[in-house]
Write a structure and sequence with these properties.
heterodimer; A: mainly beta; six-stranded mixed sheet; about 60% strand; globular; B: mainly beta; 11 strands; about 50% strand
Chain lengths: ~110, ~110
């Protein structure tokens, strides 16, 4: 099964509202990353948070990491129609090969 | 501009045929990856390579093969042994040891007729 599980699977909000997506994982990680994918396109890296960090910001993005709960959240503030995309969390495990393991994603729709 | 180029973008194949998807990067990255994505699903790792002339199986390597003869290139062959090859294939590269940011190509959509 996938290491990361995003919640919700789909989210629809009005433009200007904040969007929050969650990611839970099962085993200890080196870091956690969030990616964005527009329909039919490749993924684009948004932000990386290391296991010893609790919060990170990048523009309208805010990511938190709670290693005790094995969970992370991605907050997009003041959403825009252009934020419509799928968002994936990916984890790098401490044990095993150093590779990213992706969750199944949250499909975000911003309604104008 | 630096980046990853995948080709072709769309590919149709008859059952029983092998097809090769191209992935080229000019980012001077050591690590390269192939992922498969099915509709509404996340990415699953097929193969990855941390260095030239070396590669490892990912989670769903059966029915696929790769080579890494040059740092810039990591082609993926979908063989006739892959029972359900219709999918979106994504190539990525990383400059670190696999723990950092991945740079993705635009993907290749393979359809088996």
């Amino acid at each position: 099964s996938q290491q990361g599980e995003e919640d919700p699977q789909a989210l629809s909000i009005q433009e200007g509202e904040n969007a929050t997506m969650n990611c839970s994982y099962k085993t200890s990680i080196n870091n956690l990353q969030w990616y964005r994918q527009n329909s039919g396109r490749g993924l684009v890296h948004l932000i990386l948070i290391r296991s010893n960090e609790r919060e990170k910001h990048s523009g309208r993005l805010r990511v938190t990491l709670d290693t005790s709960k094995k969970s992370s959240s991605l907050l997009i503030t003041a959403s825009r129609a252009a934020d419509t995309a799928s968002y994936f969390c990916a984890t790098v495990l401490i044990q095993g090969a150093q590779k990213l393991v992706f969750g199944q994603g949250t499909r975000l729709t911003i309604n104008p | 501009d630096g980046g990853i180029t995948q080709s072709p973008k769309y590919l149709f194949r008859k059952e029983g045929q092998n097809v090769t998807l191209s992935c080229e990067q000019n980012l001077n990255h050591d690590a390269m990856y192939w992922y498969r994505q099915d509709p509404g699903q996340g990415l699953r790792l097929i193969y990855y390579s941390q260095i030239v002339n070396d590669f490892q199986k990912g989670d769903i390597a059966e029915g696929y093969s790769v080579s890494r003869e040059k740092k810039e290139s990591f082609p993926l062959t979908v063989t006739s042994a892959q029972k359900n090859p219709t999918a979106f294939y994504l190539c990525a590269s990383s400059g670190g040891a696999g723990t950092g940011e991945l740079f993705f190509g635009e993907g290749s959509r393979l359809t088996v007729l």
